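Q: What structure does this chain adopt?
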Amino acid sequence: MSEPRRITLCADDYGISQGVNRAIRDLIERRRLNATSVMVVGPAATREEAEALSRAAAEGVCEIGLHVTLTAPFSPLTMHFRPLDGGMFWPLGKLLRTALLRRLDSEFVYAEVTAQIVLFRELFGAPPAYLDGHQHVQLFPQIRDGFIRAAHDATPRAWARQCGRTHASLRSGNPRVNPKAMLLDALSATFRKRCAGSGLRTNPAFAGAYDFRTLPGFDGLMRDFLAPLPDGGLVMCHPGFVDDTLRSLDPLTDQREREHAFLASDDFPRLLDELGISLDRA
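A:
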């Protein structure tokens, strides 16, 4: 009998709201997640919430990483970060366009990412096991330069999330694949090369991007994400319980509860068994 494929199933956005935090901890305690990324600039990234997560993730069942955040409606930790709009980071679209035009300063990014790593250490008493980016900002031109340098300098043993799909996924012609996934493929190619050049490890493959606005069934999506994923690959997800804080900060609301419901159900471990996949970390 072949060995199971070991994959990382990572819940993003811990710290954005208490409802999201509770849902993520619930799934960790059920052994349905083995990684979560913390948004240290979020309103629910408190010492108490960090301690609760550390207890849930005890004994190495779940890696805890830093969800580097550089987009609105959140604000920087560093005093001199630019560009800003009313004290907040720029919205995603505006930031991406400016990055593609090479009009950002990677030094501001380096300082901000470093500050978020420092705050993570203060909250958890240890450096992040890995780094990724809210809305995939770590992949953007110029931002990736500051991000990779900060990760190398402040967390040399951590790894970084790249968001390129597998060759099997690309060949499949999956009708569910959306333009966002193709953009992530393109941005990740350069990101992987830059990380390799700096000695920063990355995951071998990625899945989890889809159009949240269409409210698709998450069970079918998860099958599509997992089936072609190689050993060591990563799937991102966004489980959560909706609360007023989440509604005020993010348009992704009800779909988070759908994701949580599937991952907490008996159908999810059955799917893992069917596909020969394990979430065990060792």
